[in-house]
């Protein structure tokens, strides 16, 4: 164990130093495709190497090939954070290597998962009594929810979602052998309830916080229609769900209490490293009907259910530990503070864009995502994005709205300060002027 | 960062101490269902707590509710190991929080995953050029492979597998809306090729190392039939695949070179903590046809593919890092040594059972799994299992073969020594005598 303690000290120090200097590293990796591969041996070693050699290569070879999601100036897609307590909880989880294939193979992992899902349900003011469990990503959570919906209405083969629903809905629908019906959106990128057609539908997916603009579908109207026609309502709040820890933002969850399932990614805006997607359902028996197979070698005297009966994977790592560590080490107020600060920064950036000639806001701002563009051609905006990203100073991503190329600035990194947002704005204006 | 360094030191020391004393802890958790939950608060804290409070509760509250997969006397299901370099690699991965949704969002994670899958392919003597990527569990890997098969032959709705194929095959088939045709096995629990009916089949699943007995399906005959009828052959070697690092065991992979896809779980017998399931395919274009959706907000200038195009999940954590750490810190010879020692211990245990009156071997032993029973009733064997497991000294699981209750002793923990196996045998004999 001397080796483990010594190697561990080195690894821990490397991680600490990484977090201290991540703001000095180019946010978007500057390597070319294939460059990393060419720097690594084509074959594995025959003989053991010391861990210090691995750590050296992480620093010298891997680090330049990383895009730094932990950088305070990472503003792409949805920005995420792996917080310090969660990092250490992952160390513990790996050491413990619990595998909750059944309750008895890890009562701790099985029961803690239920407890922390209840805790988060309370923080987000979800209805009492929903069954929660953890999946890897929202892609899987949505697949699991839609499989539950299909189970209840096997003759109905259509899933309805807005044009702005995440691509994972299309993936899940295709995987399940169902058919996706895209519903048009209004001028604020929200599903148009007047265009909702539930003919032959087994499920409707409402998005609270779409990927392109963080728009919020009209869940109450969608819930009305679903209740009327007996259709499963799945709510995808992968990004925005965490914001419901703040009561003043809960307008966005109106109607969600009537959903049949809900996904919120704790690895997006709840300080937990990937992967940790939270799936709740009001109808867990449908998930169990879809996935609950108990072969002989898994039958036990306790007959206590395993979480695997509610999803695809049988093996399950101890994901709840990191979420538990975050909930305790931040508390309700710590999580609220994070969300509120990120929204304040987004509002600030939005105001700068709005007040500056030659720039425009491209979609109503919700939460911590600002969609904007330089007035002018799509090509100029695309070039602007490539240029600021190539600088390594900041990283933003883009989308298309009504056919126009639009930049997205997403705030979600724990380390992001007002100075970082100002750096982004200054750089955007400077590079735009130089185009 | 002082907090992180101090908390990290405590967490690391706790992990080191855990690994030092895990052999003294009851292998199977001795708590009752609900006991852990009742010891945790019903609500999350409002205010932040120090990380040391979390660590204290891991020790005092969670630890008694754990079944110790890291114990040298864990012999249940398939025993697994989380090795020291892999534990530290998970710490690094959590600190880096790479999310490889696209190549550009983590060239390091994207390319290292390709490199280590090539490395393992070489170690296992797989054909050159197969496309490999990592999924969470074999359940997902098999789903992805069968989705690829369905894509190539959408009009054929049957998947063929043996009666002894893993329950995850049934789950995947059901999820994909396909139909499972179970093929009978011979007296050594291998699929009977003369009973193989490929009518309407889009895929056949061959298992190398079944869950009940580690039996090996006749892959060459199954490959012949698949090639003849143009049917996708998926090989499930989740457990036994890692053993192919030893040339003397490669008889078990005969014919696998003609498979269309193959799953091996590095988190089973390759010293990597859950989850890390390796999926190779000879036809990656089929996986891409099944899962490759690239929405606008994910399109990038490099047009370099993301691994997510080959599976369900879009978000992907840096799983390759722990596998890379293991491959380097053990090397080919270290992995061979582990496999050979585990097989030696299983052979030894098998010989003890065989030579003892009143006991019988219930299935041919393959690799490191011994299926055995006390002569007599199923009830007596079941009681014996409950009794030895309740002791906390060892943990074994069971299966049913030809309707009879059978005990399984699976060796796969890195810490397991000959003494541990002897403890298991002494305890089994003692408790059997007392029944």
| Biggest beta-sheet profile of chain A | 7 strands, mixed
Return the string of H and E elements of chain A.
Answer: HHHHHEHEHEEHEEHEHHEEHEEH
Instruction: Identify the CATH class of the largest domain in chain A.
Output: Alpha Beta
What's the CATH H-level superfamily name of the largest domain in chain A?
A: Type I PLP-dependent aspartate aminotransferase-like (Major domain)
* Poorly predicted runs of 5 or more residues of chain A: none
Tell me the quaternary state: homodimer
- Rg of chain A over CA atoms, rounded to whole Å, is 23 Å
* N- to C-terminal distance of chain A: 58 Å
Which range best describes the helical content of chain A: under 10%, 10-25%, 25-40%, 40-55%, 55-70% or over 70%?
Answer: 40-55%
> Any idea what the CATH architecture of the largest domain in chain A is?
3-Layer(aba) Sandwich
The overall pLDDT average of chain A reads: 96
Strand proportion of chain A, as a percent range, falls in: 5-15%
Number of strands of chain A: 11
- The total count of helices of chain A amounts to 13
Largest interface: A-B, 141 and 141 residues
Q: Strand order, biggest sheet of chain A?
A: 1-7-6-5-4-2-3
* Helical/strand content category of chain A: alpha/beta
Inertia-based shape of chain A: globular
Q: How many discrete structural domains of chain A?
A: 2
């Amino acid at each position: 164990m001397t080796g483990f303690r010594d190697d561990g000290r080195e690894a821990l120090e490397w991680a600490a130093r990484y977090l201290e200097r991540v703001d000095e590293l180019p946010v978007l990796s500057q390597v070319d495709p294939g460059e990393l591969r060419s720097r690594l041996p084509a074959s594995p070693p025959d003989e053991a190497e010391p861990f210090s050699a691995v750590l050296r290569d992480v620093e010298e070879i891997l680090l330049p090939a990383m895009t730094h999601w932990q950088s305070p100036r990472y503003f792409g897609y949805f920005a995420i954070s792996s917080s310090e307590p969660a990092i250490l909880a992952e160390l513990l989880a790996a050491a413990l290597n619990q595998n909750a294939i059944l309750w008895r193979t890890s009562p701790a992992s099985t029961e803690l998962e239920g407890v922390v899902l209840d805790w988060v349900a309370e923080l987000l003011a979800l209805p009492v009594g929903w069954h929660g469990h953890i999946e890897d990503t929202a892609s899987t959570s949505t697949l699991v929810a839609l499989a539950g919906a299909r189970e209840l209405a096997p003759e109905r083969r259509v899933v309805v979602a807005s044009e702005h629903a995440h691509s994972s809905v299309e993936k899940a629908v295709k995987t399940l052998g169902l058919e996706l019906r895209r519903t048009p959106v209004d001028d604020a990128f929200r599903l148009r309830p007047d265009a909702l057609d539930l003919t032959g539908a087994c499920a409707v997916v409402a998005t609270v916080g779409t990927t392109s603009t963080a728009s919020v579908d009209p869940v109450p109207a969608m819930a009305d229609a679903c209740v009327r026609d007996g259709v499963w309502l799945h709510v995808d709040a992968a990004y925005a769900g965490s914001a419901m820890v703040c009561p003043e933002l809960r307008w966005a969850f109106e109607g969600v209490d009537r959903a049949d399932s809900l996904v919120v990614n704790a690895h997006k805006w709840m300080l937990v490293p990937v992967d940790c997607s939270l799936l709740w359902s009001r109808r867990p028996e449908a998930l169990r009907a879809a996935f609950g197979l108990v072969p002989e070698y898994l039958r036990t005297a306790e007959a206590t259910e395993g979480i695997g009966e509610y999803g695809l994977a049988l093996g399950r790592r101890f994901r709840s530990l990191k979420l538990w560590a975050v909930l305790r080490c931040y508390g309700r107020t710590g999580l609220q503070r994070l969300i509120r600060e990120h929204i304040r920064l987004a509002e600030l950036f939005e105001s700068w864009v709005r007040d500056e000639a030659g720039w425009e806001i491209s979609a109503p701002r919700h939460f911590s995502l600002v969609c904007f563009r330089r007035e002018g051609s799509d090509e100029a905006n695309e070039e602007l994005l490539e240029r600021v990203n190539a600088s390594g100073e900041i990283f933003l991503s883009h989308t298309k709205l009504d056919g126009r190329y639009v930049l997205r600035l997403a705030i979600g990194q724990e380390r992001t300060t007002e100075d970082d947002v100002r750096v982004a704005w200054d750089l955007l204006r400077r590079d735009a002027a130089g185009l």
